[in-house]
Structure formats: C-alpha cells, structure tokens
User: Which sequence fits this backbone?
C-alpha cells in the first residue's frame, strides 16, 4: 500500500489515511473493500485536479495572447516566461526569461502576433497547449507580410500557483 502511495503522489494523503484505518480492520474482505475505495477515490481526485489545471492553463494562454496584442510581444513573453524558459525561433534557441526579453527587444519592427489555443492538456505540475498562430509584420518598404503556423507551449505551475511557460 505504501509503495502505491509513493508512486501516485497525488493520492498519498488519501491512501495513507485508509492504510491507517485498514490496520484497525480485522476482516480481509473489509480491507479489500477499503483499499478498492481508496484507489478509485484517488484517481477521481487526480482527474479533478487535472481538469482544473486545464482550465487554468487555457485562461493563462488567453491572457498571454491578449497581453501580446495590448502591450506588445516583448512584454507578454517576458511576463509569462518561467525564469528558465526556452523559445525556439528558426534554428535559434533563446534560453532564459531575460534573454527572451532581449531577443524581442532587438526586433527592429515588431509585428503583431495573434494565436488561439485549440488544445490543452495537463497532468500534475505540467501542461501544454497548441493551436494556430498568425504573425503580421511590415517589411522595410512598409509592405505587410503574414506568416501562419502552429504554436506549441509547455506550461509549468509555479510555487505561487500561477502558470508560466517553459517552452514555446
């Protein structure tokens, strides 16, 4: 029972409680019944937590996109990046929150970035989103060019409970 609880970290406290109760029970049938109930209960609480995490990540992604539109790409990426976040742009990896800010600050004419998540999933302290994006920028002659594609962002829950991206 203790080995199961350590593997299923989100069930440890529930499992420990039932383990202690089981020692007081004498009937093998009662022990199996309590163990089965604890096992099923633990999975339902993990699913509930993961569903809540999905909702939080989806809202965070939408807030991220709104900030990029309202306050600019540089501010949004800096605000929503984990300290050790990494972004991949072309063949370049930009590592660290401050380096990401510098990368976007160096953009001569920052364009407009729009995106919307069409998928979200989460498990424990990590989650991810993906969906279509559109990047619109002006070239040196003032002509607009549009790039479309798909983004993929990995999110990590911070100690304060907020979600920050670790990969984009």
Assistant:
């Amino acid at each position: 029972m203790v080995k199961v609880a350590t593997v299923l970290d989100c069930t440890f406290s529930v499992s420990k409680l039932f383990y202690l109760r089981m020692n007081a029970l004498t009937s093998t049938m009662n022990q199996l019944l309590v163990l089965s109930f604890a096992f099923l209960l633990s999975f339902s609480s993990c699913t509930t937590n993961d569903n809540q995490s999905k909702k939080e990540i989806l809202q965070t992604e939408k807030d991220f996109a709104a900030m990029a539109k309202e306050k600019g790409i540089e501010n949004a990426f800096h605000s929503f990046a984990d300290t050790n976040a990494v972004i991949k742009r072309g063949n370049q990896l930009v590592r660290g929150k401050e380096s990401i800010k510098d990368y976007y600050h160096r953009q001569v004419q920052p364009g407009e970035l729009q995106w919307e998540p069409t998928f979200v999933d989460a498990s424990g302290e990590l989650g991810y989103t993906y969906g279509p994006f559109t990047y619109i920028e002006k070239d040196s002659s003032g002509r607009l060019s549009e790039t479309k594609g798909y983004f993929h962002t990995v999110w990590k829950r911070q100690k304060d409970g907020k979600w920050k991206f670790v990969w984009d």
